[in-house]
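Consider the tokenized backbone below.
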């Protein structure tokens, strides 16, 4: 049981910050924010989305730097009758989410490098804890009352904060094989780092109508096991791991105006090792290892110039979640996840373009997958933005993204009560990117 809880914590704080697989961040440029379809990209962000498509850049050196600022709210509502409060809210604030790409393009060869947060990238803060933390405490008044000690109320200071970032360092070699066909091979190195800080403190109860420290009361009535169970507890732990992702891609141009990108990212085998300084709940034994693979991804996309200046884009990603090793949690994935995005871009002038996109992400999960600690829901995202030419060799991209999640719920059997837990989420972000080429 403790091992499964650790895996839940891992997936909670390694979850993507927009929509994609259950782990991977697909939002890897400001261009993504303003189109939501980049799998056939022939711009510099093709380093991540379509490495073979880099052969369509003009010869020379290209550099792209972007940052995203993302705000996410996760709300859990639990109707367990003994809780003081039914609603719990977690905030994920990400002021800095950078991506960097560099490409040197020659006639028939391109060398490229990319850097960005491939998973995680933020800090989740549950200032008032979660139902699974508080429910055992909320049962203390009923327990004492059953022993003939009238007790009606409780209180506790519960908090949990976790941060996660999986930095990806990617290098590609792209080559022109034919006039209509390009290919690329690459490798990404993942450096994963998670931190966890949590505490349950100052548990109070009101036997006979007076609030008193729960450990002190249980010690006074000679119940040392309950005194120990209600004593202050804290967690301070970190986890680190390294993984490798081989990447293959093709870029095809079967007709004028049409570009097709195809990419396959192999599974990233990833084992995280605990570095624990305090673990009063025995969830993060120092030196223990857990599996947190990044699933393989198959991507395909098309970009078509409908009329001069107007591009239409379509992207599909399929994530092989069920083949990943998450220490058994992958068994609760009913079918692999996918997303489908469509976008348009229109150049109003040589130095100014507007764009918009829509993305649908689909998860099919068994009820046991979701919990107050970690839950995923299918969603629809809308994005839009502009590209402005600041000077001959420098463009800036500005993008906005808002996401609308499907609501989700599950029944939980507490023995004497069949409860319902509901999950909701809101997501908003904006991005800016600078594209410089020589």
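A designed sequence for it:
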């Amino acid at each position: 049981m403790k091992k499964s809880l650790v895996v839940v914590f891992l997936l909670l704080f390694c979850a993507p910050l927009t929509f994609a697989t259950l782990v991977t961040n697909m939002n890897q440029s400001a261009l993504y924010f303003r189109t939501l379809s980049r799998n056939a990209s022939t711009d510099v962000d093709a380093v991540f989305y379509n490495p073979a498509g880099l052969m369509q850049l003009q010869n020379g050196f290209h550099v792209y730097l972007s940052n995203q600022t993302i705000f996410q709210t996760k709300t859990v509502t639990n109707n367990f009758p003994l809780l003081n409060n039914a609603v719990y809210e977690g905030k994920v604030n990400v002021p800095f989410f950078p991506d960097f790409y560099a490409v040197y393009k020659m006639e028939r060869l391109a060398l490229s490098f990319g850097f960005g947060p491939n998973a995680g990238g933020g800090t989740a803060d549950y200032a008032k804890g979660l139902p699974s933390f508080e429910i055992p405490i909320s049962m203390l008044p009923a327990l004492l009352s059953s022993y003939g000690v009238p007790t009606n109320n409780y209180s506790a200071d519960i908090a949990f904060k976790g941060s996660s970032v999986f930095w990806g360092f990617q290098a590609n070699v792209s080559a022109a094989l034919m006039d209509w066909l390009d290919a690329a091979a690459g490798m990404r190195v993942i450096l994963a780092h998670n931190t966890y800080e949590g505490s349950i403190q100052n548990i109070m109860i009101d036997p006979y109508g007076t609030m008193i420290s729960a450990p002190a009361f249980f010690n006074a009535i000679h119940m040392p096991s309950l005194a120990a169970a209600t004593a202050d507890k804290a967690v301070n732990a970190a986890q680190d791991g390294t993984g490798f992702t081989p990447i293959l891609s093709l870029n095809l141009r079967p007709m004028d105006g049409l570009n097709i990108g195809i990419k396959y990212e192999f599974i990233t085998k990833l084992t995280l090792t605990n570095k624990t300084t305090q673990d009063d709940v025995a969830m993060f034994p120092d030196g223990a290892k857990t599996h947190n693979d990044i699933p393989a991804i198959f991507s395909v996309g098309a970009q078509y110039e409908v009329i001069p200046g107007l591009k239409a884009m379509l992207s599909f990603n399929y994530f092989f979640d069920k083949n990943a090793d998450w220490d058994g949690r992958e068994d609760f994935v009913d079918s692999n996840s996918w997303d489908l995005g469509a976008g348009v871009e229109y150049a109003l002038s040589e130095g100014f373009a507007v764009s918009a996109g829509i993305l649908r992400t689909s998860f099919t999960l068994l009820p046991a997958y979701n919990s107050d600690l970690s839950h995923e829901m299918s969603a629809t995202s809308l994005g839009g933005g502009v590209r402005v030419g600041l000077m001959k060799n420098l463009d800036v991209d500005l993008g906005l993204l808002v996401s609308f999640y499907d609501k989700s719920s599950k029944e939980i059997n507490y023995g004497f009560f069949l409860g319902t837990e509901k999950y909701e989420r809101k997501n908003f972000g904006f991005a800016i990117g600078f594209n410089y080429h020589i």
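The longest strand covers residues 151-178.
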